[in-house]
Structures are given as C-alpha cells and as structure tokens.
Amino acid sequence: MSQAKVDKYKEEKKNRAKTMKLNKIKKALIIFVVALGIGALIGIPLGKYIYKQQKEAAARNATISSLEFEDWFNKKWAGEYSDMFVSASETDAEEDEEDDEDAEEIELDEGEDLELDDGEIVLDEDDVEE
C-alpha cells in the first residue's frame, strides 16, 4: 500500500466512532420522517372519517330542553297549521253572547265554597237559597 492509502485508513479509523454516530442519527431521523409521513397518510383520512361518524351519531342522539322544543313546535304550528283552522264567524260570536246572557248568576256568602264535579259547579244543598 502506498503511504496515502495508509494515512487515509488511519484517519477513517480515528473518526470511525464519530461517523457511525452521525450515520445512526441520520438513519433514526429518516425512519422518524417516513413513519410520520405514513402516519399522516393513514391518520388524517381515518381521523376525518371517525370525526364525521361521531358528528352524525351526536346529531342522531341529540337532545333538547322542553322549552326549546315548545318554542320550536309553536313556531312550526303557527307557520304551517294555523291557517287550517278558521276563526269563529260573527254568527258564532253572537250565539255565544246569547248563551252568556242566559247563564244563571249565583251569589255566594263569605266562607262558602264551590265544588267542581267534572267541570260543573255543584253547591251543597243546604247552601242553596231559594
């Protein structure tokens, strides 16, 4: 061997530990970047799919408070169905007024109570004044 080759070999042997350490770091960095890329290629679409499924499941199982439902129902009913029911005509209103005039007035003394029986007023027989 020539002297140049010998010197080159000695220099390589001297720096071999440093060179091997750098090669290990490069190899680990390359493996990390490749794994990160593969993870991104698989993970991003999979994550989007899972997120979409969770969002749809939450929408199917969504709950609202009774006040929110009542507000929604009243708005929907008023917007879509209230026109189906026509208000009372004038003749109906006149008949109702005549019925009110025919109603019997009952006066109660202090401390006297009325009892309701299926929507009708019932007085005790001894409380009725004739």
Strand content: under 5%
Q: Specify the structural class.
A: mainly alpha
What are the segments in which pLDDT stays under 50 over at least 5 consecutive residues? none
Major beta sheet, specifics? 2 strands, antiparallel
Task: Report the average pLDDT across residues.
Answer: 77
Overall geometry comes to rod-shaped
Please estimate the helix content. 55-70%
Number of helices: 4
Radius of gyration: 46 Å
Query: What is the number of beta strands?
Result: 2
Oligomer: single chain
How far is the N terminus from the C terminus? Answer: 146 Å
Provide the succession of SSEs: HHHHEE
Strand order of the largest sheet: 1-2
Could you characterize the architecture of this molecule?
Helix content is 65%, strand content 5%. With 130 residues, it is mainly α. It has a two-stranded antiparallel sheet. The chain has 4 helices and 2 strands, in the order ααααββ. The protein has helices at residues 3-14, 16-60, 66-80, 90-102, and strands at 115-117, 120-122. The mean pLDDT is 77.
